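User: hey, got a sec? need Serine/threonine protein phosphatase 2A regulatory subunit folded
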Amino acid sequence: MLETFDGEEEEHSMDPAWPHLGVIYEVLLRFVHSPETDAKVAKRYIDHGFILRWLDLFESEDPREREYLKFILHRTYGKFMVHRPFIRKAINNILFRFIFETEKHNGIAELLEILGSIINGFALPLKEEHKLFLVRALIPLHKPKCMPLYHQQISYCITHLVCVKVLEDKLGEAFEGMVAERALFLWNNDHIENLIKQNRKLILPIIFPALERNTTHWNQAVRSLSSNVRKIFSDADPELFEECLTKFKEDESKKEETKSKRDDVWKRLEEIAVYRSGLGATVQPMLIPSKATSG
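Assistant: Yep! Here you go:
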């Protein structure tokens, strides 16, 4: 199907046995989704072998089957935490084989939808595994000719993964540097704003000092945008906002105290230097006679 894709229309091969298969998938979906299902017991049957065979089914040409496969795998990922690294690795292997060997697979779009949901749950700072996934899998997925079939899903994955990366480490510095105004415009994007809110407990402590200092920024736009962002965080989590504000004031107070002590030390050193300089001017240097030469 992918080999003959012309970018205008897509033909689906419908499995005539679907009325029976659909019932089986529905039962399994309800089983995995049910809160009554004990993951500790069920994992003896939903093991690595089961997951690999399940992923093989994504080759199906019937979109109805792939849709059920996607939902069930997503629920499996959520319920069986012990299987999460294996599922990510197995999906990566399918993508690698698709990119570098076959360029033929019917379920790439569905697998990317699952990965998009997984990316939303990534914690900061990003693991090296997730950074490599961006470079080795997501970016090369633009290479195959059938990329239009999964363009929406790949765009979603890359956008969210890059946003998570942008929010890590250097975000606080960006808010105080030359790019402060552009960085603050991140909040104009609803997806990014929601992502930031979800990770606010990690992000706000990083950027709070910059937001506070930006209230006296020379650029009016930066001052206005910073105030808007402060309000977003204040409304979303007042308790966290107050904690950050209290810590900021304590840190600033400590900085002032340290600066004051440092200034006192330098003042004392300057006084000592002046005193010794004046003392040296009143004391003549000792003249050392040269040895007499014998004639």
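Quick note: The two ends are 114 Å apart (CA to CA). Let me know if you need anything else on Serine/threonine protein phosphatase 2A regulatory subunit.
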